[in-house]
Design goal:
With 699 residues, the protein is of the alpha+beta class. The chain has 30 helices and 27 strands. Strands 8-7-11-10-9 form a 5-stranded antiparallel β-sheet. Strands 13-12-16-15-14 form a 5-stranded antiparallel β-sheet. Strands 18-21-24-17-25 form a 5-stranded parallel β-sheet. A hairpin with a 5-residue loop joins strand 15 and strand 16. Keywords: Aromatic hydrocarbons catabolism, ATP-binding, CBS domain, Coiled coil, DNA-binding, Nucleotide-binding, Transcription, Transcription regulation.
């Protein structure tokens, strides 16, 4: 890491005769800790820092105070190829940096140097810790008081004590000291000390070395290194196990479904299993002791895998005659020389068949997916739904899933959000789609007519009744769907009767004595908070739980602004066809629509588009044609600024100012009114226009 890697590149400097106030402004503007002072020859003769100006106080901001009055001189400079560590020992907090031509190229702040040096030191410590944790030997280090200061991962395995537990504790609290504390007393190392530890799975033997830690000739601690030599202790048992391992290896080789050949470095075949005989048709005994070239002569293989492995020095895989997958792997001796080559031969006939089947399956899957997407698209068109938001797409998919089961659905949402549209969608995609779909606005029926309208009445049930009687909504919706809109407006007295009909699936007409069975699916909707109404006693709890089997919340239009413009265009097209007129819509109308809160949701947007289409005399609908209430809540909203790329911050600020001032003048008609709209003085507008023009930005 060099100075040029962490310096602040800049060529900004100060002159000795420059006012201190200008120096302060430059330092603040460029957010640096200080700036160098250059003479007329471009040589660095001093340095002014932010701290220098602050220490001198306000009196240096008078016009007579120059940079030469407060600058530091002489100045320590750094070269681009210097080490940042050289700056740490120097007294200054800021250092000018010069290039190979001895010209100013940047600034180096000591705080940045300290941060980089600290990061480098932390990285080194982390690497040391990682290295110690990666070794297999356990390492424990203590200070002069016997407190554990170093404890690696291997020590955790040996002692069964975690690093977090052991670090900071006395050695005797973690393990039996076994002489490590004695090293602190006499300063003598203890080599090859055996330590036996009994675990639940058996005994382990460790060879330990204890050594003192010296610093400036003084003992500051001790370190113990543990090496597991248990395998050496049981070397005789291992020799017997090798024989057993050879037998097992023979069984493994023979039991492999793949063909296996073992050769020496010259290619002489030492071993070939029966699977190779099955795959190639050549007896294993026949090729025993032969060179691999023999199989090339027999045209079993087209190329020598042994020569390929010897040349590459690593495993090599080739495909032979499109149906053999041959892999050769080298086996090295202790000196790293290849002494054996293990060749694995796999018959690809079955794999090729599976690959072809998988290819066909994928093609079928892609075709089915395309067909499914086409069916889903046709379904959306059939339902007449217009949306572009992920929320509505997910909501529609949920509605279609609910259509497949004959359960009660409670559709929640604000007025005009499209609850009835989703109710029809569920009905049209259900098994009842060929049956009737009856909509009842519960809030529109007088309380004294609710029972007769919903359940029907018999002949002569009351004065003025139809002579033949009348079927109620439940009977009319038999074998279909009954949509109870605004169910929250039902009187509490009628709710218990409705609950009985839903539970018993039968209705009793007014004036009747015999119940009539009905097969009806119930879909209910409301824009009210039924749960709060239940707590207030305005809605029966048992009816609430009966209809709220599956709630479906329809998002308000302001929660899915992505749908506003597609809906507006759809309504525009509808009324163009209906009234035989054609209109254009100014893009700023859509901006206003996106910022409007739409309390009436989709219904309000539909009504507004119809009004604009029939009342606008011009060919284009503009913002001036919108009703006044649309703008009532807009002045409290903050307009959005969209950033679509990277540019200098100064240029971006000027561009935003240009656009705001230009838009305000066009809309308000004068600079005075524009200043009022932007909440600034007129002089500010005039000054900013002049400044923008000086940069070539026209208003």
């Amino acid at each position: 890491m060099l100075v040029k890697d962490i310096m602040i590149p800049t060529t900004i400097s100060l002159r000795p005769d420059q006012p201190v106030l200008e120096a302060w402004q430059l330092i603040r503007r460029h957010k640096v800790a200080g700036l160098p002072v250059l003479n007329l020859d471009g040589e660095i003769i001093g340095l002014v820092t932010r701290d220098d100006i602050i220490e001198w106080g306000p009196e240096v901001f008078v016009e007579t105070s120059s940079v030469a009055t407060i600058m530091q001189s002489p100045v320590h400079t750094m070269r681009e190829d210097d080490s940042p560590a050289d700056a740490w020992a120097l007294p200054s907090q800021v250092f000018p940096v010069v290039n190979q031509d001895n010209r100013l190229s940047g600034l180096l702040e000591k705080s940045r140097v300290g941060s980089e040096l600290l990061n480098k030191a932390s990285w080194i410590l982390l690497q040391v810790d990682t290295i110690l944790d990666s070794v297999d030997n356990g390492i424990i280090a203590i200070n002069t008081e016997g407190i554990i200061r170093l404890y690696n991962h291997a020590a955790e395995k040996i002692t069964w004590r975690s690093k977090s537990y052991a670090t900071g504790r006395h050695l005797s609290e973690v393990i039996i000291p076994q002489g490590l504390l004695d090293v602190l007393k006499d300063g003598r190392s203890r080599k090859e000390f055996k330590l036996s530890i009994t675990y639940t799975e058996g005994n382990r033997t460790y060879l330990t070395n204890h050594s003192p830690i010296f610093e400036n000739g003084q003992i500051v601690g001790a370190v113990a290194i543990f090496q597991d030599i248990s395998e050496l202790e049981f070397i005789s048992e291992e020799l017997d196990s090798v024989k057993q391992l050879n037998k097992k290896l023979e069984l493994i080789i023979e039991s492999s479904y793949d063909g296996i050949i073992i050769t020496d470095a010259r290619g002489l075949i030492i071993r070939a299993n029966q699977a190779h005989q099955r795959i190639t048709g050549i007896p294993s005994a026949q090729i025993q002791g032969q060179n691999m070239d023999y199989l090339l002569e027999k045209e079993v293989y087209a190329q020598s895998i042994v020569k390929a492995v010897l040349h590459a020095g690593k495993p090599v895989t080739v495909v032979e005659r499109d149906h053999f997958l041959v892999t050769g792997s080298p086996v090295r001796d202790q000196d790293g020389n290849i002494e054996r080559i293990v060749v694995n031969i796999r018959d690809l006939t079955e794999l090729n068949e599976l690959r072809e089947q998988l290819k066909q399956t994928r093609e079928l899957s892609e075709r089915y997916q395309d067909e499914l997407n086409q069916l889903r698209g046709r379904l959306l068109n059939q339902e007449g739904l217009i949306f572009n938001s992920p929320k509505m797409r997910e909501l529609l998919q949920t509605a279609i899933r609910l259509a497949a089961v004959d359960t009660t659905v409670l559709i929640l949402g604000e007025s005009g959000a499209g609850k009835e549209v989703f109710a029809k969608t569920i009905h049209n995609n259900s098994k009842r789609k060929n049956g009737p779909f009856i909509t009842v606005n519960c809030g529109a029926i007088p309380e004294n007519l609710l029972e007769s309208e919903m359940f029907g009445y018999e002949r002569g049930a009351f004065t003025g009744a139809n002579r033949e009687g009348k079927a109620g909504m439940f009977e009319l919706a038999n074998n279909g769907t009954l949509f109870l809109d605004e169910i929250g407006d039902l009187p509490v007295g009628f709710q218990v009767k409705l609950l009985r009909v839903i539970q018993e699936r039968e209705v009793l007409r007014v004036g009747g004595s015999k119940p009539r069975p009905v097969n009806v699916r119930i879909l209910a909707a409301t824009n009210r908070n039924l749960e709060a109404m239940v707590k207030e006693g305005q809605f029966r709890e048992d009816l609430y739980f009966r209809i709220n089997v599956v709630p479906l919340y329809i998002c308000s239009l302001r929660e899915r602004k992505e749908d506003i413009i597609p809906l507006a265009y759809a309504f525009k097209h509808k009324y163009e066809e209906k009234y035989g007129i054609r209109k254009k819509i100014n893009p700023r109308v859509f901006d206003t629509f996106l910022n409007y809160h739409w309390p009436g949701n989709v219904r309000e947007l539909d009504n507004m588009m119809e009004r604009l289409m029939v009342t606008t005399a011009e060919d284009e609908i503009s913002v001036s044609h919108l009703p006044a209430h649309v703008f009532e809540n807009l002045e409290h909203q903050q307009p959005e600024v969209y950033v679509k790329g990277i540019m200098p911050l100064k240029n971006a600020v000027m561009e935003v100012e240009r656009q705001l001032i230009s838009t305000a003048i066009k809309e308000c008609g004068s600079a005075n009114k524009a200043a009022h709209a932007l909440k600034v003085d007129q002089s500010t507008i005039v000054r900013k226009i002049s400044r923008l023009k000086s940069y070539g930005l026209a208003i």
